[in-house]
Amino acid sequence: MKRTILKRLPDVNPLTGQNLSLKHNNMKAAAWGERKLLATQEEDIQSLVELGLTNSQSKVYLALIARGKTKGQTIWKNSGVARQDVYRVLAELHEKGLVEKVFAIPTEFKPISLKDGLAILLKNKAGEYANAEVKTKNLLQKFQPLNDDSSLGEYEFSLVPGKDATLLKFRTAFNEAQKSVDVIFYWKGFLDFVSTADIWRRKLKRDLKMRVIVYRSPGERATPSIVRNLRKKYLEIRYASMPPPATSTIFDRNAALITTSPTPNPLETPSLWLKNTGFVTIVQDYFDDLWCSLSDRQAA
């Protein structure tokens, strides 16, 4: 049986004397540099798109910035935009104030500086935002009577999405509470709450009674000074020895916000909003029983 022997190709071209390995390395370096340049160009294009230009407008404008005053034919060859679209895009950029037409034969196009162009785009974006803000206010005024909570009646059950929606629901109910707020927290959720304590202190000063039951694991024994200060001035705290089945908050004994799963951070999961005397009473009784079961020694 014959063995096939693979011979290593020479590093030097025997006819020209050219170093083939060096040529190969140069080609690899050039290809890598081209990929890096393309990635950078894509980032620049995306930045302009976020400021309000289309993809084609961004490509043409950047091509003009790179080359300065030039003809339309040069632009379509270097921008990556189809020839039949280039003049339409140039007209759009001219309308936006980003490109000047230079009277020549053939017509040439000159970009305004990138600094001035970005200032124009940012101004337009700010105008769009201000316009959207006005429309938002008008929309709220138009539909406010339909969304008034008082029109929903005495009883309400709803599933509130996590994160911002849950935080907004909590803040709204907290600010509307008149007499009491009772909360069951995990330690992490409680620390997140006290980190924004300035928001609640004004409300707590107005004769609002707040009781907090907190579960903290054995590794979470350190108590920040802010917690000690809040406990002295604004609220009562007791510590549970077992993790609660859910994070819950009861407002004025007639409304409750309860997480749908046990989690240290109540914003990570949807919450059930209850405004029903029967169901809230059950939640309140659970809280009161747990509160009474915690001695002063456990609360220390």
- Count of domain modules: 2
**H/I helix tally:** 11
Task: Kindly report the spatial arrangement of strands forming the biggest sheet.
Answer: 4-10-9-8-5-6-7
The CATH topology of the largest domain: Endonuclease, Chain A
Name of the CATH class of the largest domain: Alpha Beta
Provide the CATH architecture of the largest domain: 2-Layer Sandwich
Write the layout of secondary structure elements.
Elements: H1 20-50, H2 55-67, E1 70-71, H3 72-79, H4 83-95, E2 99-102, E3 108-111, H5 114-147, E4 156-160, H6 164-176, E5 180-186, H7 187-194, H8 197-205, E6 209-215, H9 225-233, E7 236-240, E8 248-251, E9 255-259, E10 271-275, H10 277-293, H11 296-299
Parallel strand pairs: 5-6, 6-7
Antiparallel strand pairs: 1-3, 2-3, 4-10, 5-8, 8-9, 9-10
Helix pairs in contact: 1-2, 2-3, 2-4, 3-4
